[in-house]
Specification:
about 80 residues; mainly alpha; 3 helices; elongated
Length: about 80
């Protein structure tokens, strides 16, 4: 039973990481739409830069699942 709980917990963590990645990409898109990154705190600018290092700006409707998966991996590896 302990092994099952550990496996379920790992899946929950993976899903949470994916959700956070989606939220961060959404926030980066909002900042880009606003167009004034300089009004944000330095830490927010660094976070935006980190997101954009892995996921490009979305200007048209398209799939970004590959970029999102790469971004999730970057979050997991803290890179």
């Amino acid at each position: 039973m302990g092994t099952d709980a550990a496996l379920i917990s790992m899946k929950v963590l993976e899903n949470t990481r994916t959700l956070i990645a989606i939220e961060l990409v959404t926030l980066a898109q909002a900042v880009d739409a606003e167009g004034d990154l300089q009004n944000f705190a330095t830490s927010s600018q660094e976070l935006h830069s980190f997101v954009r290092k892995h996921v490009e700006v979305v200007t048209a409707d398209k799939y970004i699942s590959g970029q999102l998966n790469n971004f999730c991996t970057a979050l997991k590896n803290n890179s």
